[in-house]
Write a structure and sequence with these properties.
121 residues, mainly alpha, two-stranded antiparallel sheet, 5 helices, 2 strands
């Protein structure tokens, strides 16, 4: 993992996502598909599993089911699923999992993660 990524949800929640090799294995197990196949065919299972995997550095028991609550809150506040997918791609780039474009640079987060935002198990 190179850098964390700060995902911003429409309800004002900021999620600090961190990805490792272990995170990728979690995503593959949760979706039943290889990571690089799933990233090309993003579905709702992949979105929830990816958010859960990125938050496991704060909560080892974070699951895709609990991440669904975060996505639901984002949608309820007027957010859209493509915005979630786009930010996940950026998070994977920040972690060195996906390649950045030649003109892209790493950026420092300007905001802090929202404390105590994780839904209860």
């Amino acid at each position: 993992m190179r850098e964390p990524y700060l995902m911003k949800l429409a309800n004002g929640t900021n999620l600090e996502l961190r990805y490792t090799f272990k995170s990728l294995r979690f995503i593959e197990k949760a979706t039943g598909s290889k990571f690089f196949v799933s990233i090309g065919q993003v579905g709702v299972d992949f979105l929830a599993a990816s958010i859960a995997a990125g938050l496991q550095h704060k909560d080892a028991k974070m699951s895709a089911e609990r991440a669904e609550n975060l996505i639901e809150a984002h949608l309820a506040a007027g957010g859209e699923l493509p915005a979630v997918a786009d930010q996940l791609v950026e998070a994977f780039k920040a972690a060195g999992i996906l390649k950045r474009g030649e003109d892209e640079e790493a950026s420092e987060p300007t905001e802090r993660p929202t404390p105590a935002l994780l839904p209860e198990p």
